[in-house]
């Protein structure tokens, strides 16, 4: 599929807009956790162990296992399950990508596996930490196939339209992709605060 003249690749603007929509989805999960914590505290089912201390003091007071849980919670809150499960689904897209009418495929135009979707997410996540995302912006804007660094690394493309044969997004993918991060974050905050 790569290099075919009839393929329309997703533009930089479309990809950035989809990212912002997906960021809103992930942020809503964090806000939902905050609301749940507030409700649990208001009805007296949970009282934080810490009171009148700064976040730094809380961090230093945590043991190594609790600190590891907090770090993993941070990673989980950035959407690995959501992105991987959605991009490896029949939709081949997250909610943001689906709303903006494009999907992720391998260089041959086929649905990507969970392993490839995981690699794509990991490389994208690491790239964002080291400002490689700025290079991705340039490569998406300036190359014919509109590939980001993570697309080059794992052999994927962002294609306009809907995948063939397509299909529905499996409910279990939504439950795991959004439910697991919610439960993980809520559990971590209840256990460590």
Key traits:
elongated; single chain; 193 residues
Q: How would you describe this structure to a colleague?
A:
- The chain is mainly α and 193 residues long.
- The protein has helices spanning 12-42, 55-61, 64-77, 80-87, 95-99, 114-129, 132-142, 149-154, 171-192; strands at residues 102-106, 156-160.
- Helix 4 (80-87) packs across helix 6.
Topology:
Blueprint: H1 12-42, H2 55-61, H3 64-77, H4 80-87, H5 95-99, E1 102-106, H6 114-129, H7 132-142, H8 149-154, E2 156-160, H9 171-192
Antiparallel strand pairs: 1-2
Helix pairs in contact: 1-9, 3-9, 4-6, 4-9
How does the helix and strand content classify structurally?
mainly alpha
Low-confidence stretches: none
Total number of helical segments?
9
Proportion of residues in β-strands: 5-15%
Helix content: 55-70%
End-to-end C-alpha gap: 51 Å
The profile of the biggest β sheet is: 2 strands, antiparallel
How do the strands of the widest beta sheet line up side by side? 1-2
Rg calc = 19 Å
DSSP, total strands: 2
Mean model confidence by pLDDT: 91
Q: Give the topology string: H per helix, E per strand.
A: HHHHHEHHHEH
Shape: elongated
In short:
By secondary structure, this protein is mainly α.
């Amino acid at each position: 599929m790569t290099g075919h003249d009839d393929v329309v690749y997703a533009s930089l603007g479309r990809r950035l807009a989809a990212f912002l929509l997906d960021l809103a989805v992930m942020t809503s999960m964090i806000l939902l956790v905050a609301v749940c914590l507030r409700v649990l505290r208001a009805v007296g089912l949970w009282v934080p162990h810490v009171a009148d201390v700064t976040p730094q003091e809380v961090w230093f007071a945590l043991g190594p296992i609790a600190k590891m849980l907090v770090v993993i919670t941070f990673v989980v809150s950035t959407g690995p399950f959501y992105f991987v499960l959605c991009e490896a689904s029949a939709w081949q897209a997250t909610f943001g990508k689906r709303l903006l009418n494009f999907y992720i495929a391998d260089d041959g135009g086929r649905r990507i596996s969970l392993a490839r979707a995981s690699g794509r997410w990991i490389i994208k996540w690491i790239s964002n930490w080291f400002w490689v995302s700025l290079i991705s912006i340039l490569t998406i804007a300036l190359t014919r196939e509109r590939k980001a660094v993570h697309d080059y690394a794992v052999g994927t493309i962002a294609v306009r339209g809907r995948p063939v044969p397509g299909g529905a997004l499996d409910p279990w993918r939504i439950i795991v992709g959004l439910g697991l991060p919610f439960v993980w974050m809520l559990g971590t905050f209840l256990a460590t605060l």
